[in-house]
Structures are given as structure tokens and as C-alpha cells.
Amino acid sequence: MGLDWDEGLFVVGNAVTGAWKSLMALGQEWRAFVRVAKLVGSQGEPPRFHDLRHTFATMAIGSGVDVKTVSAILGHSNAAMTLNVYADALADSKKVSMDLMGRIMSAGLS
């Protein structure tokens, strides 16, 4: 967007003033939201803001978005890193694929 890179800038900003939110402010607002909404994560703990990133990646991969694309969106240096971090999203895909292969092989034997 023509802005010089600044380590203090973040993706989320104030829609009214256009100012960027600091990581600390964003974290505080997220924790307040979690508390008010009584959110509980998959491990029984309150979800962290960073957990949204994991949820996005898991849902994208589980929905069929290729890992290379998810990796690029997340800013990972390569798809291997994405696979190492979010491989749990592929468990259901493996089952679906193995069920499909089982049907194909069974049809070939009939």
C-alpha cells in the first residue's frame, strides 16, 4: 500500500481513526471478548487470539484449500512449515481418502 515497513504495525486497526492497534491492545480486547462471550477452546482453556490463526489454517486445509496457498496466506516460508504446524487438519482428509481408495479397490475386485 505504499507504506514503509514498520515493525509496530499490525493487521488490525481502528476503523474510525485508521490507527493500527498494538499487539498489547489487541490481546487485551480479545481476552475481554473471550471473558464476556464465555468462550472455551478445544483444550478446555480460553482461546488465545493466535488460536484464530490455527482455526483458519485448519478449516482452510480441511475444506480443500491447498497447503501451498494456506502457507502463503499465513506468511510461512514454505509449505513444509505449514504442514508441520497444522498437520492435524489432515487427519480427516486421510480417512476420507482411505475410504475412497477402499471403495475403488473393492470395486476392482468385484
TrEMBL record:
Q: Which Gene3D superfamilies match?
A: Intergrase catalytic core
**Which superkingdom does the taxonomy of this entry point to?**
Bacteria
PROSITE patterns attached here? TYR_RECOMBINASE (PS51898)
Protein name (record): Phage integrase family protein
> What organism does this protein naturally occur in?
Parafannyhessea umbonata
Q: Which Pfam families does its entry note?
A: Phage_integrase (PF00589)
Q: Which UniProt keywords apply?
A: DNA recombination
Tyr recombinase domain span: 1-99
Q: Which InterPro entries match?
A: DNA_brk_join_enz, Integrase-like_cat_sf, Integrase_catalytic
